[in-house]
Design goal:
Layout: H1 12-15, H2 32-51, H3 55-66, H4 75-80, H5 87-102, E1 107-113, H6 119-134, E2 138-145, H7 172-178, E3 183-186, H8 189-199, E4 206-211, H9 216-222, E5 233-241, H10 256-266, E6 271-275, E7 291-296
Parallel strand pairs: 1-2, 1-4, 2-3, 4-5
Antiparallel strand pairs: 5-7, 6-7
Helix pairs in contact: 2-3, 5-6, 9-10
Bound molecules: S-adenosylmethionine (SAM).
S-adenosylmethionine binds near residues 146 and 214.
Amino acid sequence: MRAIPQTTVRSPIAITGTVLRVSTPVYENEDYEMNDRKASLLNKLVRAAAKDSSSIGLIAKRVMARVPVGPGYSPMQQVQLGILPRPEYAYTAICASETAVRLGYNEVTWIEFGVAGGAGLLTLEAIKASVEKALPIRVRIVGFDMGSGLPAPVDYRDLPHAWKRGFYEMDVPLLKSRLTSADLVIGPIADTLPIFVAKGSSDAPIGMISFDLDYYSSTAEAFKIFESSPDSILPRVFCNMDDVIGSGEVFSDFTGARLAIREFNALGDSCKLSPCYDFAQFAYERWQEKVMVYHDFRHPRYPDYVGDDAGGQLPI
Ligand SMILES: C[S@@+](CC[C@H](N)C(=O)[O-])C[C@H]1O[C@@H](n2cnc3c(N)ncnc32)[C@H](O)[C@@H]1O
């Protein structure tokens, strides 16, 4: 891991458009005032459209998404306008990358637990292209999967009424031929994850995880990723919890991923999985219910300020 000198970090107004406040920009050309004004206006327009859940807001988003803007929309603006696929993946991946940049890293890891055919992993590769274009960060993507489809459910907590052994088998050679950069780790995560955690990823700390393993037993096993040493994981990890809302699986707080989350949170006070409450710049959409944040309150970098250097004032 190499720390990024502060002066090379681009203005978050150009990279985020939401979530984190605008910080003091560092510009290298004389046009900066005009660029800043244009970026600020664009940001306001995108935010207004993104927050408007009426049909006018929907039309505005569609129109804006089609209108080419100078350097292009930032990755988060692309989420706000519905340009990037799978907003729950894109939102968490972008937040992770922005956090990594603000903490001074130049590499970050995104993980998908449960890859199946690979549509999600390919989506992450598309998001990576957008993020790497906009942010001074390189992205490493790792996907964990059995390869052979769902294992046998252990008991009722794995929702055997909804899923069966062998569902979602992967065509490993086909997926490998389509992937351009993501690593595939094939095998039961009970075997593969301890090796990954022991090896560590201090060169590219983990910042984003999508949990899509369906079962309680597999999700609880995957939470062992949070045993990674602090240099291998960010203090806050942006998570997509795919199996907390559904369409006919009859999820409950006593089975599946919801039970795994509840049990994880009961383990102690320092590490918690919490819903994300940062969607004030968006109209409500269902995908936001899947977004959770892992907090390690005792992580040595948890208190490090990642906001706006020029902020902190509320003039009348
Ligand atoms: C619903 S699919 C994932 C879908 C994928 N995320 C997508 O968006 O296309 C669930 C996957 O979890 C994997 N899985 C479940 N339990 C596992 C375990 N214990 N170890 C490894 N993979 C597991 C299965 O092999 C299956 O492919």
